[in-house]
Design a protein that fits this description.
The protein has a six-stranded parallel beta sheet, with helices on both faces. Strands 7-6-8-9-10-12 form a six-stranded mixed beta sheet, with helices on both faces. By secondary structure, it is an alpha/beta fold. The longest helix is centred in the first third of the chain and has 16 residues, at 77-92. It folds into three domains: 10-61, Orthogonal Bundle (434 Repressor (Amino-terminal Domain)), CATH 1.10.260; 66-164 and 293-322, Rossmann fold; 165-292, 3-Layer(aba) Sandwich (Rossmann fold), CATH 3.40.50.2300. Helix 8 (165-179) packs parallel to helix 9 (198-210). 43% of the residues lie in helices and 17% in strands.
Length: 336
């Protein structure tokens, strides 16, 4: 029976590199040594099969290697893709994501954020349900916090990867206006308990500028609930000629509702989304949507939070610019 190879020791790595065990320890932790030395030590450690024991490494560094990722709602397909991307990007940097789901509930979001802090994660990435909550400033005093989508109250976050929602909303509503739509329903996951999110505020401003009659309706992002809400909106008279959804997941519910009601997209109602999930191009018809470059968002958020954890601050505020992906789900309104 083959014997299991004994785990290589830090002393063996030191002998292979000609450094002291202390210098090897510093290099593996990325401190007090040059990048050239760190690379040489990592290469030797990999060749020898050296792996730092996670508990010992945490005790030595004062870090857990864990980063909290608090998603606004994992019922949203785009946020699922975001979580997968961030988890993989952190793993590539020898860190691990603890992924939690606020389920669109601001109270649950704050409870989970506090639990992540109490579990001593090294940092926190959050796509906030309630960016105005006072707790964020308190958390930012205890650990690096990076927000995605909206900035947090008080500007205390160590980094923000924010969306240019004014541009995103303008692109979508100007597109519908140019097609001839004047009566537009807007479906948003924002709740009454978390008002005044930037994107929703811009809808009202842009609707007034363009002369659109807009009705803003709250919708859950889960498909059954989004379908029910969309069916109610499309059953009203006069019916909106277009529906603009603040997540593609909600737009999928609009598609389902049109089938239940015997309506055609875009013949009877045009539909537009807001995050360009990969599945949106596969629908029949393909969904017009605002694209936010999810790969760029993942890279930026991970780079900022890791930089904050390591004491190497990066650019604090990164603005994501949108692009409108025009597809066949939007067209001119049907003749009155």
């Amino acid at each position: 029976m083959p014997t299991r190879r004994k785990r290589a020791t830090i002393r063996e790595v030191a002998e292979a590199t000609g450094l002291s065990p202390a210098a090897v320890s510093y290099a593996l932790r990325g401190i007090q040594t040059s990048e050239e030395t760190q690379e040489r030590v990592r290469r030797a450690a990999a060749e020898l099969g050296y792996e730092a024991h996670p508990i010992a490494r945490a005790l030595a560094s004062g870090r857990s290697g864990m980063v909290g990722l608090l998603c606004g709602s994992l019922e949203d397909f785009w946020q699922q893709s975001l979580a997968v991307g961030i988890g993989r990007a952190l793993l590539a940097r020898d860190r691990y994501a603890i992924i939690l789901d606020a389920a669109g509930d601001p109270e649950r979001e704050l409870t989970l954020a506090q639990r992540l802090r109490d579990q001593r994660v090294d940092g926190l990435i959050v796509q906030p349900v309630d960016p105005a909550a006072p707790l964020w400033a308190e958390l930012a005093d205890a650990l690096p916090v990076v927000s995605i989508g909206d900035g947090l109250r008080g500007g205390h976050a160590h980094g923000e990867v924010v969306f240019d929602n004014r541009s995103g909303v303008t692109l979508a509503l100007e597109h519908l206006h140019a097609l001839g739509h004047r009566r537009v329903a807007v479906l948003t996951p924002t709740r009454a308990s978390t008002p005044d999110r930037p994107a929703d505020v811009y809808v009202n401003a842009e609707a007034e500028r363009l002369g659109l009659e807009v009705s803003v309706v709250t919708s859950h992002q889960a498909l059954p609930a989004a379908t029910t809400t969309a069916a109610e909106v499309l059953s009203k008279r006069p019916r909106p000629t277009a529906v603009f959804c603040f997540t593609d997941s909600i737009a999928y519910g609009v598609y389902a509702a049109t089938r239940e009601l015997g309506l055609a997209v875009p013949g009877d109602v045009s539909v537009a989304g807001y995050d360009n999930h990969p599945m949106s191009a596969l629908l029949t018809p393909p969904l017009t949507s605002v694209d936010w470059d999810i790969e760029g968002i993942v890279h930026a958020a991970v780079r900022v939070v890791v930089g904050a954890i390591e004491g190497k601050p990066r650019k604090r505020r990164i603005m994501c610019e949108p692009n409108l992906r025009r597809r066949d789900s939007t067209g001119p309104p049907a003749p009155a």
